């Protein structure tokens, strides 16, 4: 959909609900057939992460996963219509708002669950904190351009590529109560290194960067994620902030890994990165 300007424009002209449904239908019935390798990887990884499921249960989860991917892509054209209390329910909203209204810089830390772009837009909508998102452009320049255009209306400031580290540090140190939005489950070397799922992996990638930044600027971690409940409706879950002044890096990593790892397994039908790794590879065996 992102590489097809007509489809993207169609999604924008349709009401948010029908657009989301159409995106899910196209993904499950068209895209899935052309992405057999990704589907096979997701199936293998799901069998490892949730071995107690029957074959029929796993297939149902995989089908729902393709629907969620398609809905998420279609909803990119309608994020501004979804950033509201009618579409996003915050679990313990009062407590969440108290966290956002608190002092100091914050690193909002999540995974590609539910609709991660809506989550980024929602935290920007929910607080007066200056926000910055870290992103990595897709390899396809057409998709990258369309994605940038879609996000420009709701994402606010975003940064990626060379010079990103300097820009992030400047943001966190020079803006009062600045927030950094980071997706931790990025793909590197044909693997997803976080969550670990018990694999003997050292903190690396975005997680390693976030740990160093938190120590340098005194930022707290806010672990959170957004999951789809039905159609274009979502629940925002969050964990009390993790403060590097009172926790070791190992404790922070363990808490993040457990909280977000459990969420990715429980909501495997909404976790994008399930197809981006190979848990059968040496060094990536799940314990």
TrEMBL record:
Keywords: Acyltransferase, Cell inner membrane, Cell membrane, Membrane, Transferase
UniProt keyword Lipid biosynthesis, yes or no: no
GO molecular function: acyltransferase activity
Main subcellular location of this protein, as a coarse class: membrane
Pfam family of the protein (one): Lip_A_acyltrans
Localisation: Cell inner membrane
PANTHER family: LIPID A BIOSYNTHESIS LAUROYL ACYLTRANSFERASE, PHOSPHATIDYLINOSITOL MANNOSIDE ACYLTRANSFERASE
Protein name (record): Lysophospholipid acyltransferase family protein
